[in-house]
Amino acid sequence: NNLVSYFSRINFSCVDRYLLTASLRRDGSSRFGQDNRYGMFPAVSAGWVITNEPLFSRLQRLGAIKLRGSFGVTGNQGISDYAYLATYGAANYGTAPGISPNNFANPNLKWEQTKETDFGFDWNMFAGRVTLIGDYYSKKTTNLLVNRPITGTSGFTTFFDNVGDVKNTGTELQLTTDIIHAARTGDFSWNMDVTFSTNHNMVTALYGNQPLFGGVRSVNTVMVGAPL
After folding, report:
1. pLDDT recorded at residue 217
2. Which residues on neighbouring strands pair with residue 42, listed in sequence order?
3. For position 185, what pLDDT does the model report?
4. How far is the C-alpha of 142 from the C-alpha of 158, rounded, in Å?
5. 178 or 174: whose pLDDT is higher?
6. pLDDT value at position 67?
């Protein structure tokens, strides 16, 4: 398999208060058919250091506070190399050599895409010895690349297809502390990180809104309106 990529990025900073980054990448993968081989994946993020703003200068006694937000799109090509092609393999008929199909073609296969929006803040206190980082994110994955079950009368039981959407939302909170620094004590340092996170997962679409079954005796079920 081969992957070709083009990537560009722009960084902008103004008076140590306003920060902006924008990027654009275009990826082409041999794992997809000719009509769907390339995907475009943009991203943009912005930050505002409010404690450097003259209007909020009084907040500097609390430390350095930055508000930020971002939006981006990423792609996934995690399928076998020839999933979109009808391939053949050796299949003897009795003692006579022969070939038979071993893959169900799907020329419409395309990139799985994940769009994520994030809002957060960074708060550095006590000359950087204590840092609090908070985030809220919303992530939606569309055109999921899944081995979709099909009727056995076709000669196959599954084939790769873009079959549905999944949404994840959640929060993350991290506290980092530099309790004892080696530069002050010589040989001993003590750092502590505490992390709290939540995630809510939901399947929002499937092929024909029909559930997928798998695992031993089909005890694993994926259905619209339920988490994975």
Report:
1. 64
2. 24
3. 57
4. 20
5. 174
6. 96
Confidence of residue 211 (pLDDT cuts 50, 70, 90): confident
How far apart are alpha carbons 6 and 225 in whole angstroms?
37
Given a contact cutoff of 8 angstroms between Cβ atoms, the answer to whether 203 and 225 are in contact is yes
- Tokens 């010895």 appear where? 129
Q: How many whole angstroms separate alpha carbon 116 and alpha carbon 155?
A: 39
Q: Which of 116, 126, 87, 89 is nearest to 104 (CA)?
A: 87
- Alpha-carbon distance of 145 to 80, in angstroms, equals 11
Where helices occur in 131-204 by DSSP H, the ranges are 182-185
The half-sphere exposure of 84 on its side-chain side, counting CA atoms within 13 A, is 19
Taking residue 179's Cβ as centre, other Cβ atoms within 10 Å add up to 10
- Bridge-based pairing of strands 165-180 and 190-205 is antiparallel
Least confident of 22-31, 50-59, 124-133, 201-210: 50-59
Among 35, 41, 6, which Cα is nearest to 22's?
41
Whether the predicted model's global pTM rises above the 0.85 cut: no
In whole angstroms, give the CA distance from residue 49 to residue 5: 33
Q: DSSP letter at 131?
A: E
Give the Cβ contact number of residue 119 at 10 Å: 14
Number of H helices, E strands in the chain: 1, 14
